[in-house]
Design goal:
Elements: H1 7-25, E1 43-45, E2 48-50, E3 55-57, H2 59-71, H3 75-85, H4 91-104
Antiparallel strand pairs: 1-2, 2-3
Helix pairs in contact: 3-4
Length: about 110
């Protein structure tokens, strides 16, 4: 991942990176996996979309979490996901997870 305010500089850097990878490491860049995006759209990394002042859970990560909680609503599973949710702006999803804990009797009140 390379960050810059200068889009043209980033675009000019791609061939240099490709040349280095081919010559020195015998590797190639996958053409469908090169992205030049604005910071306003966020940086997708490790299940989160990172912005300059906050981060939110990636939609696919959120769906996977909800599916696993439905399949196995054990307190250990739910607590693990609540630990994950502490690391971002996730108040709405926390409320859903906590209400699921109430539904299955893991909590007596929130």
């Amino acid at each position: 991942m390379i960050l810059s305010d200068d889009k043209e500089w980033l675009e000019n850097l791609i061939p240099q990176i490709q040349n280095f990878l081919v010559k020195n490491l015998k590797l190639t860049l996958h053409p469908d996996k090169i992205f030049i995006k604005t910071m306003a759209s966020g940086v997708d990394f490790l299940g989160w979309i990172h912005f300059t002042d906050h981060k939110i859970l990636r939609t696919t990560t959120k769906r996977r979490m909800v599916k696993r909680i439905r399949e196995s609503p054990r307190p250990e599973t739910i607590n693990s996901y609540l630990g994950l949710l502490r690391h971002g702006n996730t108040n709405k999803i926390k409320i859903k997870v906590l209400s699921k804990m109430l539904d299955i009797g893991c909590l007596t009140s929130v």
